[in-house]
Amino acid sequence: MKVFGLLAAGLVCLGLGILWGRWFPIIKNLWTRSYVLVAGGHSLILLAFFFAILDVLRLRWLAFFFVVIGANAITIYVAKEIIPFGRIADFFLGGAAKHSGAYSQIVLLAGTIVVEWLFLLYLYRRKIFLRV
User: Fold this and answer.
1) pLDDT tens digit sequence for 10-57
2) Dihedral sign (CA 69, 71, 74, 80)
3) Where are the alpha helices (DSSP H) in 1-132?
4) What is the pLDDT of residue 40?
5) What is the CA 66 to chain-centroid distance, rounded?
6) What is the DSSP letter of 31?
């Protein structure tokens, strides 16, 4: 029942925001009222989706990727200034990136995210949580 309520509220906000956007433009930088309704509508729809998957269907294993990131979010924010994750990814994926043509930057960025996540997984498995 909560899922349908969240979904309905999201669709109403999204519809009202788009409708109001005809007279009052949807501008993110100004945080116009129509933008707030559209952004809130999208947020409520996503909340309903994740609530349905994680709490109603109990498929919590799907969220493990984000749990690992959230457990040490501040750590990775600081560590990326100290540890050269991009160079590590380039070391392992540089050859694949050269052969991927126009997608070379995507390969390297995805590799960087994987290296950062593996670092966070290492900390998570050893129960190392750095807090502020």
Assistant:
1) 999 999 999 999 998 888 888 889 999 999 999 999 999 999 999 999
2) negative
3) 2-20, 33-51, 64-71, 73-82, 85-98, 104-125
4) 97
5) 8
6) T
Q: How far apart are CA 124 and CA 58, in angstroms?
A: 22
| 68 Rama class: left (phi>0) / alpha (psi -120 to 50) / beta | alpha
Question: Is a pLDDT exceeding 80 seen at residue 8?
Answer: yes
CA-based nearest residue to 115, from 81, 79, 82, 86 = 86
Say which residue the tokens 């100290």 belong to. Answer: 82
- The CA-based dihedral angle spanning residues 111, 117, 118, 124, taken in that order and rounded to the nearest 10 degrees: 180
| Cα(92)–Cα(128) distance, integer angstroms | 26
What is the C-alpha separation between 16 and 18, in angstroms, rounded? 6
Structure tokens at 45: 């729809």
Q: Output the pTM of the full model.
A: 0.73
**CA distances (Å), origin 96, targets 85, 87, 110, 113, 118:** 17, 14, 12, 16, 19
**Burial class of residue 54 in the structure, from the number of CB atoms within 10 Å of its CB (0-12 exposed, 13-18 middle, 19+ buried):** middle
- CA–CA distance, 37 with 63 (Å, rounded to integer): 27
